[in-house]
Design goal:
Elements (H helix, E strand, L loop, with lengths): L2 E2 L15 E2 L11 H9 L2 E12 L5 E14 L2 E14 L2 E18 L2 E12 L4 E17 L3 E16 L10 E16 L4 E12 L2 E16 L4 E12 L9 E12 L1
Parallel strand pairs: 1-14
Antiparallel strand pairs: 2-14, 3-4, 3-14, 4-5, 5-6, 6-7, 7-8, 8-9, 9-10, 10-11, 11-12, 12-13, 13-14
C-alpha cells in the first residue's frame, strides 16, 4: 500500500480552549470508540478544542482547527455527536480542507448486547469528496466488560453515498451509492486511575463486491491532568482499496491534543 506521510503543524495559539497538532489529510471514516469511553466517566459530556497557527515572513500561511463533542447516557440509552473542521494554507496553496459531522445512538438490549444507529456527513477536498454520507444500523456485542479491560465487536449494514468534486471532471460530478458491511473490534484498557488506552479496527467491504473495502485502525492514549483537562495522542491509519483517480489509497494521521471538558 502506498502511504502518504503526515506533515505536523506547530500550533502557536490555543484560543483558550485546547492545543491540537494535526497531521496529514483526513480519513473517510471516524473512530468514535475513544469518544464513547469518555461517556463511561461522565454521563453528560461536552468537550471543545480549537487551535490556530499563523506564519508571516519566510513562511506565509495558517493552520486552524475547531472541534466539539457532546454526549449523554440516560438509563439504557446513549447518544453523542462530534463536529470537526480543519484548514491549512501555505503560500496561497491550500493543503488541508476537511469537515465532518458524526452522530451515533446506542440502546442496551441485554447486558452484553446493544442496538446501534449512526449517521455521518463529510467533505474532503484532497480526497476529491464534495460530499460523503453514511447511515447504518446494527448490533454491538460486549465480549469483555470489566472495569479495567473492555472488548467490543460491532457489525452493521451501512448505506454509503459519495459525490466527487466536479473540478476534476468534465460534465456532472460522479456520484454513487453502495451498501457496505461495517465491522469493528474495539479494545479499551484502563491502565491507571488517570490513563487509558483505546484501539479500534474497522473493516467495511462493499456487500456486492468484497474487493472494494475500507480499513481504519485507530489507537488513542489519554492521560487526565485534572478534572477539566486531559492530554491525548491519536494515531490513525486509513486505507481505501478503490480511491478516486489521483488519490492515494493510504492516509496516516497523528493528533496530539489538550482537551477541555465542560
Amino acid at each position: 500500500m502506498a502511504a502518504r506521510l503526515p506533515c505536523l503543524a506547530l500550533p502557536a495559539l490555543a484560543l483558550g480552549l485546547a492545543l491540537t497538532l494535526h497531521a496529514a489529510p483526513a480519513r473517510a471514516q471516524v473512530n468514535v470508540e475513544a469518544l464513547r469511553s469518555d461517556l463511561d466517566a461522565h454521563a453528560r459530556y461536552l468537550s471543545l478544542q480549537a487551535s490556530f497557527a499563523g506564519h508571516l515572513g519566510n513562511t506565509n500561511g495558517a493552520v486552524g482547527s475547531v472541534a466539539a463533542f457532546a454526549g449523554a447516557a440516560v438509563d439504557r440509552n446513549l447518544i453523542f455527536v462530534k463536529v470537526q473542521a480543519d484548514y491549512a494554507e501555505f503560500s496561497g496553496t491550500t493543503s488541508i480542507s476537511k469537515a465532518f459531522v458524526h452522530g451515533r445512538y446506542n440502546v442496551r438490549i441485554l447486558p452484553f448486547l446493544y442496538g446501534e444507529a449512526f449517521a455521518q456527513i463529510e467533505e474532503n477536498e484532497f480526497q476529491r469528496l464534495a460530499l460523503r454520507q453514511v447511515d447504518g444500523v446494527g448490533l454491538r456485542f460486549g465480549v469483555v466488560q470489566r472495569p479495567t479491560v473492555q472488548l467490543f465487536y460491532g457489525t452493521s449494514w451501512m448505506l454509503d453515498y459519495e459525490k466527487l468534486d466536479d473540478e476534476f471532471v468534465f460534465g456532472p460530478a460522479p456520484q454513487w451509492f453502495a451498501q457496505r458491511w461495517n465491522n469493528y473490534l474495539a479494545v479499551g484498557w484502563k491502565m491507571s486511575a488517570h490513563t487509558h488506552l483505546d484501539e479500534t479496527f474497522y473493516i467495511q467491504p462493499r456487500i456486492n463486491g468484497f474487493a472494494d473495502f475500507r480499513l481504519l485502525d485507530d489507537a488513542s492514549f489519554v492521560m487526565d491532568i485534572d478534572k477539566r483537562f486531559s492530554a491525548k495522542i491519536d494515531c490513525q491509519i486509513h486505507y481505501n482499496s478503490t480511491p478516486p483517480v489521483g488519490v492515494l489509497p493510504t492516509d496516516v494521521d497523528t493528533v496530539t491534543s489538550l482537551v477541555l471538558t465542560l
